[in-house]
Amino acid sequence: MMEKMTESHLPKVLGPVHVWALGVGIVLVGQFMGWNFTIAKGGSLGAIIACWTIGIMYVCLIMINTEMGSVIPEAGGQYAMAKYLLGPLAAFNVGLMLVFEYVMLEAADALVVGEILKTLSPDVQALPYIILSLLLLTYLNYRGVHATLNLNIILTGVAFLTIIILLFTTKFYSPTESMLNLKALTNGLPYGAMGILGALQFGCWFYLGIEGTVLVAEECKSTGRALPLGAITGLVTLIIGATITWFVSSGLVESSILAKSTYPLFDAAIATNKPLIINILFMGTMLACLASANGCIADASRAWYSMARDTLIPKSFAVLHPKYKTPYVAILFLLPISLAFGFTGLLDQVITFSIFSALLVYILTAYMMIKFRKMYPIGSIKRGYEAKWHPVPSIIVLILSGATLFGMYFGYWINLVAGFTFYLLASIWFVYYRSKFLDYNTFMSKGVSNWPRPEGY
Protein backbone atom coordinates (compact mmCIF):
# COMPACT_ATOMS: atom_id res chain seq x y z
CA MET A 1 0.00 0.00 0.00
CA MET A 2 2.79 2.40 0.93
CA GLU A 3 4.68 1.65 -2.28
CA LYS A 4 1.55 2.47 -4.27
CA MET A 5 1.23 5.81 -2.49
CA THR A 6 4.81 6.79 -3.09
CA GLU A 7 4.38 6.25 -6.82
CA SER A 8 1.36 8.56 -6.99
CA HIS A 9 1.61 11.92 -8.65
CA LEU A 10 0.65 15.17 -7.01
CA PRO A 11 -2.69 16.53 -8.30
CA LYS A 12 -2.63 19.19 -11.03
CA VAL A 13 -4.66 22.04 -9.54
CA LEU A 14 -2.58 25.22 -9.87
CA GLY A 15 -2.80 28.11 -12.34
CA PRO A 16 -0.64 31.22 -12.99
CA VAL A 17 -2.12 33.20 -10.09
CA HIS A 18 -1.21 30.40 -7.66
CA VAL A 19 2.36 30.37 -8.95
CA TRP A 20 2.46 34.16 -8.50
CA ALA A 21 1.13 33.82 -4.95
CA LEU A 22 3.74 31.18 -4.12
CA GLY A 23 6.69 33.14 -5.51
CA VAL A 24 5.72 36.61 -4.28
CA GLY A 25 4.28 35.27 -1.03
CA ILE A 26 7.56 33.66 -0.04
CA VAL A 27 9.65 36.70 -0.98
CA LEU A 28 7.53 39.68 0.03
CA VAL A 29 8.49 39.25 3.68
CA GLY A 30 12.03 40.18 2.59
CA GLN A 31 10.73 43.69 1.94
CA PHE A 32 9.41 43.90 5.48
CA MET A 33 12.63 42.62 7.07
CA GLY A 34 16.20 41.56 6.32
CA TRP A 35 16.90 43.73 3.26
CA ASN A 36 17.96 46.62 5.49
CA PHE A 37 21.18 44.81 6.45
CA THR A 38 22.36 46.03 3.03
CA ILE A 39 22.61 49.48 4.62
CA ALA A 40 24.83 48.15 7.40
CA LYS A 41 27.14 46.66 4.77
CA GLY A 42 27.08 49.26 1.99
CA GLY A 43 25.26 52.36 3.17
CA SER A 44 22.02 53.75 1.78
CA LEU A 45 23.27 54.15 -1.78
CA GLY A 46 24.96 50.76 -1.66
CA ALA A 47 21.60 49.26 -0.63
CA ILE A 48 19.68 50.50 -3.68
CA ILE A 49 22.54 49.59 -6.02
CA ALA A 50 22.53 46.08 -4.52
CA CYS A 51 18.76 45.95 -4.90
CA TRP A 52 18.85 46.67 -8.63
CA THR A 53 22.00 44.66 -9.35
CA ILE A 54 20.61 41.58 -7.66
CA GLY A 55 17.31 42.27 -9.42
CA ILE A 56 19.12 41.79 -12.74
CA MET A 57 20.49 38.48 -11.48
CA TYR A 58 17.00 37.29 -10.58
CA VAL A 59 15.58 38.34 -13.95
CA CYS A 60 18.21 36.09 -15.56
CA LEU A 61 17.61 33.31 -13.03
CA ILE A 62 13.86 33.29 -13.65
CA MET A 63 14.49 33.11 -17.41
CA ILE A 64 16.67 30.01 -17.19
CA ASN A 65 14.65 28.45 -14.36
CA THR A 66 11.42 28.77 -16.28
CA GLU A 67 12.77 27.28 -19.50
CA MET A 68 14.05 24.15 -17.78
CA GLY A 69 11.11 23.95 -15.39
CA SER A 70 8.59 24.12 -18.22
CA VAL A 71 9.96 20.90 -19.77
CA ILE A 72 10.64 19.01 -16.52
CA PRO A 73 7.17 19.06 -14.93
CA GLU A 74 8.13 17.40 -11.67
CA ALA A 75 7.94 18.50 -8.07
CA GLY A 76 11.33 19.53 -6.78
CA GLY A 77 12.23 22.26 -9.26
CA GLN A 78 16.00 22.65 -9.45
CA TYR A 79 16.39 19.27 -7.76
CA ALA A 80 14.54 17.62 -10.66
CA MET A 81 16.73 19.51 -13.13
CA ALA A 82 19.89 18.31 -11.37
CA LYS A 83 18.55 14.76 -11.38
CA TYR A 84 18.52 14.63 -15.17
CA LEU A 85 21.42 16.95 -15.92
CA LEU A 86 24.00 16.34 -13.17
CA GLY A 87 23.35 12.96 -11.55
CA PRO A 88 22.51 11.59 -8.07
CA LEU A 89 25.18 13.29 -5.90
CA ALA A 90 24.54 16.77 -7.32
CA ALA A 91 20.78 16.21 -7.14
CA PHE A 92 21.06 15.18 -3.49
CA ASN A 93 22.99 18.36 -2.68
CA VAL A 94 20.64 20.63 -4.65
CA GLY A 95 17.64 19.08 -2.91
CA LEU A 96 19.25 19.56 0.48
CA MET A 97 20.15 23.17 -0.35
CA LEU A 98 16.57 23.90 -1.39
CA VAL A 99 15.21 22.42 1.82
CA PHE A 100 17.54 24.50 3.99
CA GLU A 101 16.94 27.65 1.95
CA TYR A 102 13.23 27.48 2.70
CA VAL A 103 13.42 26.02 6.20
CA MET A 104 15.76 28.86 7.21
CA LEU A 105 13.51 31.44 5.58
CA GLU A 106 10.56 30.00 7.50
CA ALA A 107 12.65 30.30 10.68
CA ALA A 108 13.37 33.97 9.87
CA ASP A 109 9.63 34.55 9.48
CA ALA A 110 9.06 33.09 12.94
CA LEU A 111 11.73 35.36 14.41
CA VAL A 112 10.14 38.49 12.96
CA VAL A 113 6.65 37.47 14.09
CA GLY A 114 8.01 37.12 17.62
CA GLU A 115 9.80 40.48 17.57
CA ILE A 116 6.88 42.46 16.18
CA LEU A 117 4.45 40.93 18.67
CA LYS A 118 6.68 42.28 21.44
CA THR A 119 5.91 45.82 20.24
CA LEU A 120 2.32 45.38 21.47
CA SER A 121 3.45 45.03 25.07
CA PRO A 122 6.58 43.92 26.96
CA ASP A 123 4.38 41.29 28.65
CA VAL A 124 3.35 39.60 25.40
CA GLN A 125 4.66 36.05 25.16
CA ALA A 126 5.43 35.60 21.46
CA LEU A 127 6.27 31.88 21.58
CA PRO A 128 2.69 30.52 21.74
CA TYR A 129 1.59 32.74 18.82
CA ILE A 130 4.55 31.67 16.68
CA ILE A 131 3.96 27.97 17.33
CA LEU A 132 0.21 28.32 16.74
CA SER A 133 0.73 30.19 13.45
CA LEU A 134 3.17 27.62 12.08
CA LEU A 135 0.97 24.74 13.22
CA LEU A 136 -2.04 26.24 11.44
CA LEU A 137 -0.06 26.83 8.24
CA THR A 138 1.38 23.32 8.42
CA TYR A 139 -2.15 21.94 8.80
CA LEU A 140 -3.29 23.97 5.80
CA ASN A 141 -0.43 22.54 3.69
CA TYR A 142 -1.32 19.10 5.03
CA ARG A 143 -4.86 19.54 3.65
CA GLY A 144 -3.79 20.60 0.14
CA VAL A 145 -1.71 23.00 -1.94
CA HIS A 146 -4.71 24.57 -3.72
CA ALA A 147 -6.25 25.93 -0.52
CA THR A 148 -2.76 26.86 0.73
CA LEU A 149 -2.01 29.05 -2.26
CA ASN A 150 -5.54 30.47 -2.39
CA LEU A 151 -4.83 31.81 1.08
CA ASN A 152 -1.45 33.11 -0.11
CA ILE A 153 -3.18 35.11 -2.85
CA ILE A 154 -5.09 37.01 -0.16
CA LEU A 155 -2.21 37.35 2.32
CA THR A 156 0.26 38.47 -0.33
CA GLY A 157 -2.12 40.87 -2.04
CA VAL A 158 -3.05 42.62 1.20
CA ALA A 159 0.59 42.77 2.40
CA PHE A 160 1.72 44.33 -0.90
CA LEU A 161 -1.14 46.83 -0.70
CA THR A 162 0.10 48.02 2.72
CA ILE A 163 3.44 48.99 1.11
CA ILE A 164 1.58 51.06 -1.50
CA ILE A 165 -0.52 52.70 1.25
CA LEU A 166 2.64 53.65 3.16
CA LEU A 167 4.13 55.14 0.00
CA PHE A 168 1.15 57.42 -0.67
CA THR A 169 0.87 58.36 3.00
CA THR A 170 4.27 60.07 2.72
CA LYS A 171 2.92 62.35 -0.07
CA PHE A 172 6.11 61.65 -2.01
CA TYR A 173 4.54 63.25 -5.08
CA SER A 174 4.44 66.72 -3.47
CA PRO A 175 7.78 68.53 -2.98
CA THR A 176 6.22 70.83 -0.35
CA GLU A 177 4.24 68.25 1.64
CA SER A 178 6.41 65.13 1.33
CA MET A 179 7.40 63.45 4.60
CA LEU A 180 10.47 61.91 2.99
CA ASN A 181 13.90 63.37 3.71
CA LEU A 182 16.42 61.25 1.83
CA LYS A 183 19.09 63.93 1.92
CA ALA A 184 19.19 64.16 5.71
CA LEU A 185 18.56 60.52 6.63
CA THR A 186 20.67 58.56 4.13
CA ASN A 187 24.43 58.09 4.33
CA GLY A 188 25.52 57.47 0.72
CA LEU A 189 28.40 55.05 0.17
CA PRO A 190 30.40 55.05 3.42
CA TYR A 191 32.41 51.93 2.48
CA GLY A 192 32.82 52.55 -1.25
CA ALA A 193 32.80 49.75 -3.82
CA MET A 194 33.60 47.08 -1.24
CA GLY A 195 30.47 48.10 0.64
CA ILE A 196 28.38 47.46 -2.46
CA LEU A 197 29.96 44.01 -2.77
CA GLY A 198 29.12 43.28 0.87
CA ALA A 199 25.56 44.54 0.39
CA LEU A 200 24.83 42.10 -2.44
CA GLN A 201 24.32 39.34 0.12
CA PHE A 202 21.31 40.95 1.75
CA GLY A 203 20.18 42.45 -1.55
CA CYS A 204 19.15 38.87 -2.33
CA TRP A 205 16.56 39.16 0.43
CA PHE A 206 14.43 41.40 -1.80
CA TYR A 207 13.91 38.43 -4.17
CA LEU A 208 15.11 35.23 -2.53
CA GLY A 209 12.54 32.46 -2.97
CA ILE A 210 10.95 33.57 -6.27
CA GLU A 211 12.88 30.77 -7.97
CA GLY A 212 10.80 28.34 -5.89
CA THR A 213 7.93 28.67 -8.34
CA VAL A 214 9.35 25.70 -10.29
CA LEU A 215 9.03 23.45 -7.25
CA VAL A 216 5.29 23.09 -7.92
CA ALA A 217 5.68 22.40 -11.66
CA GLU A 218 4.12 18.96 -11.25
CA GLU A 219 1.01 20.49 -9.70
CA CYS A 220 0.32 23.06 -12.46
CA LYS A 221 -2.62 22.46 -14.78
CA SER A 222 -0.50 23.76 -17.67
CA THR A 223 3.16 23.96 -16.70
CA GLY A 224 4.18 25.74 -19.92
CA ARG A 225 1.67 28.52 -19.22
CA ALA A 226 1.47 28.77 -15.43
CA LEU A 227 5.21 28.87 -14.70
CA PRO A 228 6.21 31.68 -17.11
CA LEU A 229 3.20 33.86 -16.34
CA GLY A 230 3.34 33.34 -12.57
CA ALA A 231 7.11 33.69 -12.20
CA ILE A 232 7.61 36.70 -14.51
CA THR A 233 4.68 38.73 -13.12
CA GLY A 234 5.87 37.82 -9.65
CA LEU A 235 9.35 39.15 -10.31
CA VAL A 236 7.97 42.41 -11.73
CA THR A 237 5.87 42.77 -8.56
CA LEU A 238 8.94 42.28 -6.39
CA ILE A 239 11.16 44.74 -8.28
CA ILE A 240 8.50 47.45 -7.91
CA GLY A 241 7.96 46.61 -4.24
CA ALA A 242 11.70 46.52 -3.47
CA THR A 243 12.29 49.97 -4.96
CA ILE A 244 9.33 51.46 -3.06
CA THR A 245 10.50 49.79 0.16
CA TRP A 246 14.00 51.29 -0.03
CA PHE A 247 12.65 54.70 -1.05
CA VAL A 248 10.08 55.02 1.76
CA SER A 249 12.16 53.44 4.53
CA SER A 250 15.28 55.47 3.70
CA GLY A 251 13.25 58.69 3.59
CA LEU A 252 11.59 58.14 6.97
CA VAL A 253 14.19 56.38 9.15
CA GLU A 254 17.77 57.47 9.82
CA SER A 255 20.25 55.10 8.18
CA SER A 256 22.04 54.00 11.37
CA ILE A 257 18.69 52.94 12.90
CA LEU A 258 17.38 51.40 9.70
CA ALA A 259 20.52 49.26 9.32
CA LYS A 260 19.82 47.47 12.61
CA SER A 261 16.03 47.22 12.49
CA THR A 262 14.25 43.85 12.74
CA TYR A 263 11.19 45.23 10.93
CA PRO A 264 12.24 48.27 8.83
CA LEU A 265 8.92 48.95 7.08
CA PHE A 266 7.10 48.89 10.41
CA ASP A 267 9.69 51.33 11.79
CA ALA A 268 9.03 53.55 8.76
CA ALA A 269 5.32 53.46 9.60
CA ILE A 270 6.10 54.43 13.20
CA ALA A 271 8.09 57.40 11.87
CA THR A 272 4.92 58.79 10.22
CA ASN A 273 3.34 59.19 13.69
CA LYS A 274 0.00 58.12 12.23
CA PRO A 275 -1.71 55.40 14.31
CA LEU A 276 -3.78 54.11 11.39
CA ILE A 277 -0.67 53.65 9.20
CA ILE A 278 1.22 52.02 12.05
CA ASN A 279 -1.60 49.50 12.51
CA ILE A 280 -1.82 48.87 8.76
CA LEU A 281 1.93 48.14 8.51
CA PHE A 282 1.78 45.98 11.63
CA MET A 283 -0.86 43.93 9.83
CA GLY A 284 1.14 43.97 6.58
CA THR A 285 4.28 42.69 8.30
CA MET A 286 2.39 39.89 10.03
CA LEU A 287 0.60 38.86 6.83
CA ALA A 288 3.86 38.92 4.84
CA CYS A 289 5.50 36.64 7.41
CA LEU A 290 2.55 34.25 7.33
CA ALA A 291 2.46 34.17 3.52
CA SER A 292 6.19 33.52 3.40
CA ALA A 293 6.07 30.74 5.99
CA ASN A 294 3.12 29.22 4.14
CA GLY A 295 5.01 29.14 0.84
CA CYS A 296 8.20 27.89 2.49
CA ILE A 297 6.38 24.90 3.94
CA ALA A 298 5.06 24.06 0.47
CA ASP A 299 8.43 24.42 -1.29
CA ALA A 300 10.62 22.71 1.30
CA SER A 301 8.25 19.75 1.54
CA ARG A 302 8.16 19.35 -2.27
CA ALA A 303 11.95 19.17 -2.43
CA TRP A 304 12.11 16.66 0.45
CA TYR A 305 9.25 14.61 -1.02
CA SER A 306 10.91 14.48 -4.45
CA MET A 307 14.21 13.29 -2.99
CA ALA A 308 12.40 10.53 -1.11
CA ARG A 309 10.31 9.51 -4.13
CA ASP A 310 13.55 9.08 -6.08
CA THR A 311 15.14 7.00 -3.24
CA LEU A 312 17.88 9.55 -2.38
CA ILE A 313 16.49 9.57 1.17
CA PRO A 314 14.14 7.02 2.83
CA LYS A 315 10.96 6.51 0.79
CA SER A 316 8.79 6.88 3.90
CA PHE A 317 9.07 10.67 3.38
CA ALA A 318 7.39 10.31 -0.03
CA VAL A 319 4.10 8.92 1.23
CA LEU A 320 1.10 10.90 -0.05
CA HIS A 321 -1.95 11.36 2.12
CA PRO A 322 -4.63 8.90 0.93
CA LYS A 323 -7.33 11.61 0.94
CA TYR A 324 -5.60 14.96 0.38
CA LYS A 325 -2.77 13.71 -1.90
CA THR A 326 -0.21 15.88 -0.11
CA PRO A 327 3.33 14.86 0.95
CA TYR A 328 2.20 15.03 4.56
CA VAL A 329 5.11 13.10 6.09
CA ALA A 330 7.61 15.55 4.58
CA ILE A 331 5.47 18.51 5.69
CA LEU A 332 5.28 17.32 9.30
CA PHE A 333 8.94 16.25 9.47
CA LEU A 334 10.31 19.68 8.52
CA LEU A 335 8.20 21.72 10.98
CA PRO A 336 10.25 21.12 14.18
CA ILE A 337 13.50 21.75 12.27
CA SER A 338 12.30 25.18 11.22
CA LEU A 339 11.06 25.99 14.72
CA ALA A 340 14.40 24.98 16.22
CA PHE A 341 16.33 27.39 13.98
CA GLY A 342 13.74 30.12 14.56
CA PHE A 343 14.22 30.09 18.30
CA THR A 344 17.95 30.67 18.10
CA GLY A 345 17.05 34.37 17.87
CA LEU A 346 19.89 34.99 15.38
CA LEU A 347 18.06 36.65 12.48
CA ASP A 348 21.08 37.66 10.39
CA GLN A 349 22.70 34.24 10.88
CA VAL A 350 19.55 32.40 9.83
CA ILE A 351 19.15 34.70 6.82
CA THR A 352 22.80 34.17 5.87
CA PHE A 353 22.51 30.37 5.75
CA SER A 354 19.34 30.65 3.68
CA ILE A 355 21.08 33.00 1.22
CA PHE A 356 24.21 30.84 1.12
CA SER A 357 22.21 27.72 0.26
CA ALA A 358 20.26 29.62 -2.40
CA LEU A 359 23.40 31.02 -4.06
CA LEU A 360 24.86 27.54 -4.44
CA VAL A 361 21.62 26.45 -6.13
CA TYR A 362 21.80 29.47 -8.47
CA ILE A 363 25.36 28.65 -9.54
CA LEU A 364 24.45 25.04 -10.25
CA THR A 365 21.27 26.12 -12.07
CA ALA A 366 23.24 28.44 -14.38
CA TYR A 367 25.65 25.60 -15.18
CA MET A 368 22.72 23.25 -15.79
CA MET A 369 21.16 25.69 -18.25
CA ILE A 370 24.36 25.80 -20.31
CA LYS A 371 24.49 22.01 -20.31
CA PHE A 372 20.76 21.73 -21.05
CA ARG A 373 21.02 23.89 -24.19
CA LYS A 374 23.98 21.80 -25.42
CA MET A 375 22.13 18.54 -24.83
CA TYR A 376 18.76 19.76 -26.13
CA PRO A 377 19.13 22.71 -28.55
CA ILE A 378 16.11 24.85 -29.47
CA GLY A 379 13.79 22.77 -31.66
CA SER A 380 14.85 19.37 -30.30
CA ILE A 381 12.12 19.28 -27.61
CA LYS A 382 8.99 21.33 -26.97
CA ARG A 383 9.52 24.15 -24.48
CA GLY A 384 6.82 26.10 -22.66
CA TYR A 385 9.20 29.07 -22.52
CA GLU A 386 12.50 29.93 -24.22
CA ALA A 387 15.05 32.07 -22.39
CA LYS A 388 16.41 34.85 -24.60
CA TRP A 389 20.04 35.73 -25.33
CA HIS A 390 21.49 32.42 -24.16
CA PRO A 391 24.09 31.99 -22.63
CA VAL A 392 24.18 35.61 -21.35
CA PRO A 393 21.61 35.08 -18.55
CA SER A 394 23.52 32.05 -17.24
CA ILE A 395 26.81 33.94 -17.29
CA ILE A 396 25.27 36.88 -15.40
CA VAL A 397 23.88 34.52 -12.75
CA LEU A 398 27.28 32.85 -12.36
CA ILE A 399 29.14 36.17 -12.04
CA LEU A 400 26.72 37.85 -9.64
CA SER A 401 26.20 34.74 -7.50
CA GLY A 402 29.97 34.32 -7.23
CA ALA A 403 30.44 38.01 -6.39
CA THR A 404 27.77 37.77 -3.68
CA LEU A 405 29.45 34.75 -2.13
CA PHE A 406 32.75 36.62 -2.16
CA GLY A 407 31.09 39.62 -0.53
CA MET A 408 29.72 37.39 2.24
CA TYR A 409 33.27 36.49 3.17
CA PHE A 410 33.95 39.90 4.71
CA GLY A 411 31.28 39.64 7.40
CA TYR A 412 30.31 35.99 7.54
CA TRP A 413 33.36 33.94 6.60
CA ILE A 414 32.72 31.54 9.50
CA ASN A 415 29.22 30.92 8.13
CA LEU A 416 30.68 30.21 4.69
CA VAL A 417 33.17 27.70 6.08
CA ALA A 418 30.46 26.07 8.20
CA GLY A 419 28.08 25.91 5.23
CA PHE A 420 30.61 24.37 2.86
CA THR A 421 31.63 21.91 5.58
CA PHE A 422 28.02 20.89 6.16
CA TYR A 423 27.37 20.15 2.48
CA LEU A 424 30.73 18.37 2.17
CA LEU A 425 29.91 16.08 5.10
CA ALA A 426 26.44 15.48 3.68
CA SER A 427 28.03 14.50 0.35
CA ILE A 428 30.43 12.10 2.05
CA TRP A 429 27.51 10.53 3.94
CA PHE A 430 25.59 10.12 0.70
CA VAL A 431 28.49 8.59 -1.26
CA TYR A 432 29.59 6.13 1.41
CA TYR A 433 26.23 5.23 2.95
CA ARG A 434 22.99 6.44 1.38
CA SER A 435 23.95 5.75 -2.25
CA LYS A 436 23.82 2.01 -1.44
CA PHE A 437 20.03 2.33 -1.20
CA LEU A 438 19.63 4.32 -4.43
CA ASP A 439 17.31 2.61 -6.92
CA TYR A 440 18.59 4.03 -10.20
CA ASN A 441 15.58 2.80 -12.19
CA THR A 442 13.24 4.67 -9.84
CA PHE A 443 15.55 7.69 -9.81
CA MET A 444 15.38 8.08 -13.60
CA SER A 445 11.92 6.64 -14.26
CA LYS A 446 9.94 9.83 -14.76
CA GLY A 447 9.80 12.93 -16.88
CA VAL A 448 12.16 12.63 -19.82
CA SER A 449 11.56 9.11 -21.10
CA ASN A 450 10.00 10.47 -24.30
CA TRP A 451 12.79 12.98 -25.04
CA PRO A 452 15.11 12.38 -27.99
CA ARG A 453 18.68 11.26 -27.41
CA PRO A 454 20.64 14.33 -26.29
CA GLU A 455 23.23 15.91 -28.58
CA GLY A 456 26.67 14.33 -28.16
CA TYR A 457 25.41 11.28 -26.25
From TrEMBL:
Membrane topology: Multi-pass membrane protein
Any one GO cellular component localisation term in the record: membrane
One Pfam family recorded for the sequence: AA_permease
GO biological process: transmembrane transport
Membrane as UniProt keyword: yes
Subcellular location: Membrane
TM helices/strands, residue ranges: 12-33, 45-64, 84-105, 125-142, 149-168, 188-208, 229-248, 276-305, 326-344, 350-370, 391-410, 416-433
Domain of life: Bacteria
Residue ranges annotated for the Amino acid permease/ SLC12A domain, each copy included: 25-435
Keyword annotations: Membrane, Transmembrane, Transmembrane helix
Database matches in InterPro entries: AA-permease/SLC12A_dom, APC_superfamily
Protein name per UniProt: Transporter
